[in-house]
Specification:
The strands form four sheets. Strands 6-7-8-9-10-11 form a six-stranded mixed sheet. By secondary structure, the chain is of the alpha+beta class. Helix 5 runs antiparallel to helix 10, helix 7 packs across helix 8 and helix 13 crosses helix 14. About 30% of the residues lie in helices and about 20% in strands. The structure holds iron/sulfur cluster (SF4). Iron/sulfur cluster binds next to loops.
Length: about 550
Amino acid sequence: MAATTPERPVAAAPPRRKAGRHRGEGQWGMGHHTPLNANEQFKKDDDGLNVRTRIETIYSKAGFDSIDPSDLRGRMRWWGLYTQRKPGIDGGKTAVLAPEELDDKHFMLRVRVDGGRLTVRQLRAIGEVSEEYARGTADITDRQNIQLHWIRIEDVPAIWEKLEAVGLSTTEACGDCPRVIIGSPVAGVAADEIIDGTPAVEEIHDRYIGSPEFSNLPRKFKTAVSGSPVQDVVHEINDVAFVGVVHPEHGPGFDLWVGGGLSTSPRLAERLGAWVPLAEVADVWAGVVGIFRDYGYRRLRNRARLKYLMADWGPARFRQVLEEEYLGRKLVDGPAPDEPSSRWRDHVGVHRQRDGRFYVGFAPRVGRVDGATLTKVAELAEAHGSDRLRTTVEQKMIILDVAEDRVDSLVAGLEALDFQVAPSPFRRATLACTGIEFCKLAIVETKARGARLIDELERRMPDFQEPVSININGCPNACARIQTADIGLKGQLVLDEHGNQVEGYQVHLGGALGLEAGFGRKVRGLKVTSDELPDYVERVLTRFEAQREAGERFAT
Ligand code: SF4
């Protein structure tokens, strides 16, 4: 689709600069401990993890209005709680109103699902919490979490009790700390797996999540671990990633990537050229997080991600500091991973496991499910002999461990819930962030718009089979990874044909992860209104089909 993509995108790397030269960066490791902004101040005043006690003993009893503002818009995130947007406030007011005017007095609650790993009992518990406390809401996120909405502060202790009874938590699901650890959703079962990263995901979680050692980072910290040859964890855009690779002498292990991230200055992670054996992943992870904690920039929130330090240091210096100051030993040099073995990285469909049973991946529309349906999925899995489910970074789900003679029945049961196992490319690869329904930063609607776009494209283009990703964001942030999509849609207000301000999108084309990873380019001046969106996408895809050469895929 080169015709509409001016030039191949590259990672937007800020110029390299000697770290620490600027006294104002607030790096602890350079002796700068004075808080330089309000976020650093509230983190210094009290650890985000400590808010749990106040939620349990004060706020849940005295109600929303009793919550201290620096807890409400700060520390509660360390327990997965964000205030949600008051209904009916249009996107034009997002940047105008004060935070308290946007607050609905209900919360979004993010349940972390490390490695996307769920048991039947856990999924059933989430379904029940959704039904009982969250008005039935449940969204699968593009980081394998499940998010609930309409949560009242009064109900939070009871929700924690119910989730924690089945081994789930909301600890550090948001906030300036190590977020959910993304893992290959088919770890330990895929027939083509290079190495199973599950023990590393579990060790990092058990040793470090909820620990004060890393509960005050400059900003959020994202981790990905996958030993799958399809590289199914978007490792290129995580702060740290471990990617399965076979070392010619030492065998299967992980290639270490550092410093990826999206948002307003997207940057692909860089390889440090180091091979890490499974048993050392947690220690190396802790070293990388330690560097971020100690040397990460804390002065400006928009420069407080690891990617900025990585851009200034470069991979060689980063590796040297990691080895000398944090690990006390050299890392083993290692090879780069092979290119991903498949364009699809979502595991949708029916696939044979290494033990001869099958896993079945299915596609909700844009990750939107609901509590009652999640409970039905749990029952369906159990009735077909499975106790293991997975969420994926593509907002999809997988049921593992299905005997061959039970597959057809399971597929029929899923499709009766409108979860297709052989979906159209549109249903399979359209992502949408939370958007204006609940997000206080949103400018436009996303979930319903995405679902309608899928339905419309399926109706208009029933024979289109090319893998094409369409990612929809409700604002200039990057929660739905628009820069890495074939068609990325960044929500903003645009002018319609009559000159009226309406909801719409700035279009980015040609992004990709995996093969030829790079960021989509903003097409100058190309904005579409929400109403025009199906027509626009249909036009782009029809032109691609008509003009493509043999073997050409959408992003090339
Ligand atoms: Fe909210 Fe913007 Fe993120 Fe969407 S991209 S969830 S609108 S912050």
